[in-house]
Amino acid sequence: MLEEIFVAVYGAIVIAYVALNIRKGSFIFDASKSIPILIFVFVLASVALALMGTPPAEALEVVMKIGAAGILFAGVAPMIAATVGLFRFNDEHGPSIFYARNHITGVIDVTASLVMIFVGILILRIDLVAVGFFFFLLIPFSGNALANAYYYTYHRRLEK
Amino acid sequence: MSDFLVTLAGTAFFWSALIFLVALTLAGLGCIRLALKGEAITSLMGVSCFTTIAGAGLYLISLPELFNVGFARDTAIALLVFGGVGTIVFARIFRTEE
After folding, report:
1. Between chains, do B31 and A11 touch, taking CB under 8 Å as contact?
2. Which residues contact B79 (CB under 8 A, 6 or more apart)?
3. Which of A47, A73, A150, B57, by CA, is between 20 and 30 Å from B14?
4. Residue A23 and residue A20: Cα distance in Å, rounded?
5. Which residues of B touch A157 (CB under 8 A)?
């Protein structure tokens, strides 16, 4: 029961923090400062657990798995935001709404690939990192190809 | 203490992955809606996004720390790679139709 309470509180904090960042439109704490601080906290927690008698490898695995859980929780808020956007922006906004939808699907793609990369790093699954990274490299090309095809097939004709 | 921590990490990872999978499913519904309406390129965009969601979800399912469905891994890799490449190819084909 104690574990579930911890997970609920941890998840609520991470999701709320990411949702606040999305609402603000920029980082509340700058990522260049917050990420090194987080890494330092996780290293400190691993050392503390090792000093308390937990085997070092197990302590590191526990801390990294909790970090991976944080990454997965962090991916929830952008996914929900993108879902709301996909349902909200309908055709009444005109032909240019395609580009807004293209951006929203890009958010989904980037969130999925970044979650795969960082979770793969933290649970030590290199195949997950490799596939996520390959997909991350493909995203801009597919988004650009879609926008390009839409412009030359429909949008330019409408403008004429 | 050690057993408690291992259980705690396992529980946190399981529930976070489960909640992320639910969020992926919701986004997948939006993508299906996008794929079923509008012109061909909007549909292609919806399908492309859905392959991403299905691939990421299947890859998470295949992890031994979660559900350990081994065969889902190959499907996930195929979806992620061919989904992206197929989107680019079909977008080029649609573009040259003009």
Report:
1. no
2. B51, B52, B54, B55, B58
3. A47
4. 5
5. 98
Supply the DSSP symbol for B3: H
Supply angle C-alpha A120, A122, A125, rounded to 5.
35
Nearest to A123 by CA among B39, B29, B54, B59: B59
pLDDT tens digit sequence for B25-75? 999 999 999 999 878 889 999 999 999 999 999 999 998 888 888 888 999
Task: Say if residue A83 is in the same domain as residue A110.
Answer: no
ipTM comes to: 0.90
Question: Closest to B16 (Cβ–Cβ): which among A52, A59, A72?
Answer: A72
CA dist A141 and B57 (Å) reads 22
CA B49 to chain centre: 8
Q: Which domain does A145 fall in, by range? A: 91-160
What is the number of residues in chain A?
160
Residues A112 and A82 in one domain: no
Same domain, A73 and A107: no
Give the nearest partner residue to A116 out of B12, B56, B97, using CB atoms. Answer: B56
Buried b (16+ CB within 10 A) or exposed e, B49-69: bbbbbbbbbbbbbbbebbeee
Domain count along chain A: 2
Intra-chain end-to-end CA distance of chain A, in Å: 65
For A64-81, how does the pLDDT look when each residue is reduced to its tens digit (9 = 90+)?
Answer: 999 999 999 999 999 999
Query: Computed from CA positions of residues B80, B83, B84, B85, in that sequence, does the dihedral angle turn out positive or negative?
Result: positive
Structure tokens at A12: 């609520």
